[in-house]
UniProtKB/TrEMBL annotation:
Residues 39-154 form the LD-carboxypeptidase N-terminal domain. The active site is at S135, E228, H298. This is Muramoyltetrapeptide carboxypeptidase. Signal peptide: none annotated. Gene3D superfamilies: Class I glutamine amidotransferase-like (3.40.50.10740), LD-carboxypeptidase A C-terminal domain-like (3.50.30.60). InterPro entries: Carboxypeptidase_A_C_sf, Class_I_gatase-like, LdcA_N, Peptidase_S66_N, Peptidase_S66C, S66_fam. The keyword Nucleotidyltransferase does not apply. Pfam families: Peptidase_S66, Peptidase_S66C. It comes from Sinomicrobium oceani. Belongs to the peptidase S66 family. SUPFAM superfamilies: Class I glutamine amidotransferase-like, LD-carboxypeptidase A C-terminal domain-like.
């Protein structure tokens, strides 16, 4: 910075650094659903068979919605639901079809990153629709967040039979534009109390880690970061958290929400900390509120989270709450 920089700019930079006054990404929210709308179910990663979709289809129909199945439901190409080209073509059709009001990923696994650069979001940006899912779908959440469009981190058809009623109702509320507020979430001794307000971003830790350095990587400054993961070795969790730290992901966030850290593994020589301990160890260098065991992720009680929407996180000694809000201009 030049030595001639006006003093007020120094003051502004100091305020931004000290108080977290970062400009939020202007977000566009897809229209909420109404009865009679159509939801498309597609497989962007691993294969998924149509007979396993019935519980999800029945649920959507009881909500008054129509269902269209993508051409990726059924095919198998090794582990994937068709070739990369076929999966990209199927998703592209649903992104561009004005009759489709929401796209629900059938399952996660791995494979969405293989098609993200094949997609054209030109029409989607003009007439956005809700993208719904979690886990590997974090690729879509993150990429679309960089376009300034909100998405919905929520359960998927593969999980519907096992999900809690609260999980399913939160998905319905989010899709139909009802207010989302989670209260009375039990505290953990490892939590750090405080209040944070900002856009909620994040998703699966492994996916966020894999997107670093790419055009799909999110920016976290001035935002509340959510992470969750499944089936990882503890030293992998440490490596991913260290890489996010070195990339500045925690430097200026407002708060950290840790969802399910499910089915973690250790080596014969123990790593020495569980997943909560690893995250807590990283977070201790900062001063934002932190909560653990938030009901979202690879767990039965997987509550819907509107990524890109402003929220207030409150972590007290007695409970944790998260409320999505409309920010006043």
């Amino acid at each position: 910075m030049s030595r001639y920089t006006p003093h007020f700019l120094y003051a502004l930079l100091f305020a931004c650094t000290t108080f977290g006054l970062y400009a939020q990404t202007p977000m566009l929210y897809p229209p909420h659903l109404k009865k009679g709308d159509t939801v498309a179910i597609v497989a962007t990663a691993r294969s998924f068979q149509p007979e396993d979709l019935q519980p999800a289809i029945d649920t959507l129909r009881t909500w008054g919605l129509h269902v269209v199945l993508g051409k990726t439901i059924g095919p198998e190409y090794h582990q994937l639901a068709g070739t990369d080209e076929a999966r990209a073509r199927d998703l592209q059709q649903m992104l561009d079809d004005p009759a489709i009001k929401a796209i629900w990923a059938a399952r996660g696994g791995y494979g969405t990153v293989r098609i993200i650069d094949m997609l054209d979001f030109t029409r989607f940006r003009k007439t956005p629709k809700w993208i719904v899912g979690y886990s590997d779908v974090t690729v879509l959440h993150s990429h679309i967040h960089t376009l300034g469009i909100a998405t919905l981190h929520a359960t998927m058809p593969i999980n519907v039979k096992k999900n809690s009623e609260a999980s399913m109702q939160s998905l319905k509320k989010a899709l139909f534009g009802k207010k989302l507020k989670y209260t009375h979430i039990p505290p953990r001794a490892q939590n750090r109390t405080g209040v944070a307000e900002g856009q909620l971003v994040g998703g699966n830790l492994s996916i966020l880690y894999s997107l670093l350095g790419s055009p799909s990587a999110i920016k976290t400054e001035g935002k509340i970061l959510f992470i969750e993961d499944l089936d990882e070795y503890l030293y992998h969790i440490d490596r991913m958290m260290m890489n996010l730290k070195r990339n500045g992901y925690f430097d200026n966030i407002r708060g950290l929400i840790v969802g399910g850290m499910t089915k973690m593994h250790d080596n014969s020589i123990p790593w020495g900390k569980d997943a909560v301990g690893i995250v807590r160890d990283i977070a201790k260098a900062y001063n934002f509120p932190v909560c653990f065991d938030f009901p979202a992720g690879h767990i039965q009680d997987n509550r819907a989270l509107i990524l890109g929407k402003d929220a207030v996180l409150k972590v007290t000694e007695d409970e944790v709450s998260l409320e999505f809000i409309n920010r006043k201009n």
